[in-house]
Amino acid sequence: MPHANQPILPGATLGMLGGGQLGRLFTVAARGMGYRVMVLDPDASSPAGQLADVHLCAEYDDPAAWEQLTQHCAAITTEFENISAEILHTLAKYRPVRPGAEAVAVVQHRVSEKRWLQAQGIATAAFAVIGHADDVAAACSMVGFPAILKVARFGYDGKGQARVANRAEVETAFAEFGGEVCVLEQQITLQCELSVVLGRNVLGQTACFPVAENIHAQGILDMSIVPARISPALADLAQQTALFIAQSLHYCGVLGVEFFVTTEGKLLVNELAPRPHNSGHFTLDACLTSQFELQVRALCNLPLGATAQHTPAVMVNLLGDLWGQSQPNWQVLMQHPYAKLHLYGKIAARSGRKMGHFTCLADTVGDALALAQEIRHALPAMADSFRR
Ligand code: ATP
Ligand code: MG
Q1: What is the pLDDT of residues 257-307, one digit of tens each?
Q2: Which domains does the chain have, with CATH numbers?
Q3: Is residue 271 lining ligand 1, measured as CB closer than 6 Å?
Q4: Would you say the CB of residue 293 lies under 6 angstroms from ligand 1?
Q5: CB of residue 216 inside a 6 A radius of ligand 1
Q6: I want to staple 266 with a disulfide (CB 3.0 to 4.6 A). Which of 86, 262, 301, 325 is the partner?
Q7: How far apart are CA 158 and CA 221, in angstroms?
């Protein structure tokens, strides 16, 4: 194996575990910089597999696929936190794997993630672990109500979560989740939600994007407004907290840190994502270096590039719900020279499925937001007229 700190230069092949939209956008960035990309994903039509140099269409635990990855790739990364840390650990015996298995193991389980944050002295919402029905009573008296019960593993986009108002509802929800280990979390009255995406390479160099202000609908990210409409002091605190987390985790790669801001103005960490983050998609159009180029640079142990934002931006997610009998009305979006469309190549438009996003750029976030609202209201028009 080459020395761990040696830069990996264009021409080399990079391995990506996972073929979703994040893997796809990584593939575009990496290929644009002259790398080859090998994607492992069992889905034959995966968004990243479509654009990769090589798509290994196999299960994540397929030793023949690992063999291909370790033989051909100079380094390997991932686009989702639910990849088994054991697989990362095994691959790391042969090739650099960034982020490493230890960091991903902490982050992929809500219990270890929250305990780790607490141990670093980082504020989170009050929580208690429920591993068995017998734990419910103590957890309820510790956390109080209203609360949210969350499964500890494999949750995303608000799945595996239930809002609960009393002990009976906790018992029912815990049973509905099949007795899986859960976290009961105090429901925070939110002033707003924020996120910070950053990169860190093996040398410990870091680069941080501006703070995004995130608006969710039905537990799914709907819109990110950047820069966030918050005080410079709060923005600085969010960035410093995210950098401190990356350093304390000895993290290598791109990390997303989600925050809650309480109505009292207190900053709490919600959760960590060991990969580029949906709220960082604005960087594709509004920053010198995108979060995906940053992922390439951190993986390849290159200098991280400038992450400064050149234009205020609002990113809007496009969910499958927008697709009617036909495609949404893209023409209305294309008419605006400062609106940028990104589609992920997904074939089936299911409800709640992230199909793409668009970003609006303007001189102020207020103007970008107004344009984003105008476009989003006009997008379903064509689908509706087809249905009539
Ligand atoms: P994703 O992977 O999309 O970030 P997730 O399934 O991991 O989602 P969370 O980030 O835990 O879920 O929660 C999704 C959203 O639900 C949050 O962004 C927030 O809007 C709301 N939410 C979650 N926990 C709380 C809480 N304790 N108090 C208030 N709102 C919450
Ligand atoms: Mg989240």
Answers
A1: 999 999 999 999 999 999 999 999 999 999 999 999 999 999 999 999 999
A2: 13-97 (3.40.50.20), 126-186 (3.30.1490.20), 190-387 (3.30.470.20)
A3: yes
A4: no
A5: yes
A6: 262
A7: 9
